[in-house]
Specification:
Strand order of the largest sheet of chain A: 6-7-8-3-9-10
Mean pLDDT of chain A: 88
Shape of chain B: globular
Radius of gyration of chain B: 21 Å
Helix content of chain A: 25-40%
Number of domains of chain B: 1
CATH architecture of the largest domain in chain A: 3-Layer(aba) Sandwich
Number of domains of chain A: 2
Low-confidence stretches of chain A: 314-326
Bound molecules: adenosine-5'-diphosphate, magnesium ion
Number of strands of chain A: 15
Largest sheet of chain B: none
Low-confidence stretches of chain B: 1-12
Strand content of chain A: 25-35%
Oligomer: heterodimer
Largest sheet of chain A: 6 strands, mixed
CATH class of the largest domain in chain A: Alpha Beta
Number of helices of chain B: 12
Strand content of chain B: under 5%
Chain lengths: 326, 273
Amino acid sequence: MISTRALSKDFVVSRSHTVHAVRGIDLDVEPGELVAVLGPNGAGKTTTMRMLTTLIAPTAGTAQVAGFDVTAQPAEVRRRIGYVGQGNAAGHSQLAGDELTSQGVIYGLDRRAAKRRTDELLDGLDLTSLARRKVSELSGGQRRRLDVTMGLVHVPTLLFLDEPSTGLDPQNRANLWEHILRMRAAYDMTVVLTTHYLDEADSMAERVVVVDHGEVIADDTPEALKSRLAGDRLVVHGTDSRRLAELAQRLPGAREVRYADTRVEARVDDGPSALPELIRAGVDAGVPITSAQVHRPTLDDVFLALTGRSLRENESTDSTAGKEAA
Amino acid sequence: MTSLLDSPTRSTPPTTIQRRSLLRDTLIVAARELRPVRRDPFSVMFGMVQPLVFLALFGPLLVGALGDSDVLGGSVWQWFVPAILVQVALFGTSTVGANLLFELQTGAHERMLVTPLSRPSLLVGRSLKEMVPLALQAVVILAVMTPFSFDLHLTGALAGLALLAVFGVGLGSLSYALALAVRKQDWMFWVVQQTLIFPLMLLSGLLLPLESGPGWMQVVAKFNPLTYLVDAERSLFAGDIVSTTVLWGVLAGLITAALGLVVGIRGMSRSAD
Ligand SMILES: Nc1ncnc2c1ncn2[C@@H]1O[C@H](COP(=O)(O)OP(=O)(O)O)[C@@H](O)[C@H]1O
Ligand SMILES: [Mg+2]
């Protein structure tokens, strides 16, 4: 469905300054996949998506989308895809329902069919009451849901969503996702999305492509990424944390073992089986564990492991972690 | 909660796919642009009255200043009515880009660029949208002016409006391209539009005859496509349809339209950078 080779984009900002927004991305997406592109602000997610949707021409490299080259046959690509950009797709001076209908007509439906679809979609997303409202009068969340709905009107075989759920409350996010997933299942849509909600990428996507500084730095299922790159995190408490840290160091795949006060933290391959082992070792060594937790890794842990930086901008890295254990 | 896929129409992806054509695309774009206008009848009414006010205030001055001389040909109104329509078209289509500026910022334009709508239809549709109020205004103006010393030649008038539409596509597309070019400093749009439109207008003999001006203005006017358009419109509204004046006007209209489309389409392919 998508195949890119060394896809790159430079923005010449001024004579002396060029931004290398995307640097040689190779990406293959099979029909039916749901791929989440994850990365910090400025990683090049939007730029990549805009190249794939024919909005901007690549500086170098090639991209085949829905069977056609984005540079050579952009019109063919446009016919086969849907795109929900980062901004507001619906014109602010238009009525919400009118925009949906005209989007349907644009993609080739006759007026009646487009109107019917408009009603179905509005109904499905609990937006019926907004049909006759002006887009500029909708709340940010309502507008965002309208944008995504517009991307679904013509049931594209390949749908691009650039941060579709930004600004939505959890309930509307869930509602929106339910719809996207159902439509995908019913019509075999291929979906490529970017998001900065880590939990969303984790729970929705079957495949996560992590980008940073315009490059793909990891590409796998969320599960594989987490166990391969991050591993489970054990957090235990006990009076002799130094001694416990030494014991933890001997667990299979143990790394990033840290201790401070009564707390010990360690990364291990298989948390649920490592924990009982550590508890037993603690009892045997006379340093009992008083409380214990296993944390499954998040995609943020994956990103941290890959780059040494956290994706959550306003969150400092674990402040309770103390010195590295010897 | 009901859901799309639970409804009886489930799994019926849109099947009634219409054939793509430039005409269909253009009509879609124009209809979308007209929708907000239609919901705002007050502004439409206001737009209807405006040229009449101008006609009523400027016309008598013309009569007073030039009515006795013969630079205007026969009747002052015969000379001035087509000019008013050209002026309306000029202002309407040269501000096509202004309506676009906001959509460039919100993302609505980006969405249009990703749809299968053909590039020319985006330009032509937005430009022709301005022809709808123009046609209404023409009806009002002609209805009001015909009792005064203005001879209505229906075929010529219709041909005149058609020619205005061709020229309008060109100017509208150029305005569209201007909006794309200045999208990061949108105040520039009005600076450029105002700076160009008034010299262009005055140097075409639209509002005041150039014959009474200095020689250099008449020379410059020869290089202004608008001059040929204005002359052709006067000729058409006078019922003089088959003439070299009209031919030159048609040529000027076609060249402007072609130039506008080329510049506009080039602008679009760079607009997301
Ligand atoms: N039109 C543009 N002109 C100049 N620089 C741009 C443009 N668009 C994006 N960039 C730059 O390219 C980089 C990648 O941006 P973007 O693709 O929007 O990132 P993301 O969507 O991952 O946040 C950023 O450094 C951004 O400032
Ligand atoms: Mg982005």
